[in-house]
């Protein structure tokens, strides 16, 4: 039995890449170094499939969107770095089977709106080049399901993938509230939340 053989929670701030951050990327050098180390670790996993989840991907309060197109691509043009581009092959047959089988199992899996890959996908995949060599992907969006439902779905997905080996790449960031120039401004609770979250991982 295989299913998921490795996985990681990965950061996705575009400033990780010098093409976006320039000299400012030095501020997140430790995270960039950690991503390079992670690439070395995940690249040794014997898996041909990557399940990729991003909080900036298509979302629904009641269902879990799944990308349908056989070829997916995206870049960082909105961050003034259109040259940073990733392309990925989707296991379209598996995606279709997951939607059908998931619905039969009681999970509301739906087809996602067709959009380019968001920076929550582009940054990690660009930062994990050795890991992504020759891998096909399944891209999952975001749902408003309760935590208990996600736990049930994770158990079902592990069993559904038992005839193949996969890695999980779960993209995310923390509070976005650490400095006055942060995307959503500064909140005193931001650093506290980030420290608590870091201790739990």
Short description:
The chain has helices at residues 18-21, 29-42, 92-104, 119-127, 129-132, 147-160, 189-200, and strands spanning 3-10, 49-53, 59-60, 64-66, 71-76, 81-90, 109-111, 136-140, 142-143, 165-171. It has 201 residues and is of the alpha/beta class.
Distance between the termini: 26 Å
Low-confidence stretches: none
What is the CATH class designation?
Alpha Beta
**Which structural class is indicated by helix and strand composition?**
alpha/beta
| Whole-number count of domains | 1
Can you tell me the CATH superfamily? LigB-like
As a percent range, the share of helical residues equals 25-40%
The succession of helices and strands, N to C, reads EHHEEEEEHEHHEEHEH
Q: How does the overall form come out from the CA principal axes? A: globular
Number of strands: 10
CATH topology category name: Protocatechuate 4,5-dioxygenase, Chain B
CATH architecture: 3-Layer(aba) Sandwich
| Overall average pLDDT | 95
Radius of gyration: 17 Å
Strands of the widest sheet, in order across it, are: 1-10-2-8-6-5
Report the biggest beta sheet as strand number plus sense, adding barrel if it closes. 6 strands, mixed
* Secondary structure tally, helices: 7
Percent range for β-strand residues? 25-35%
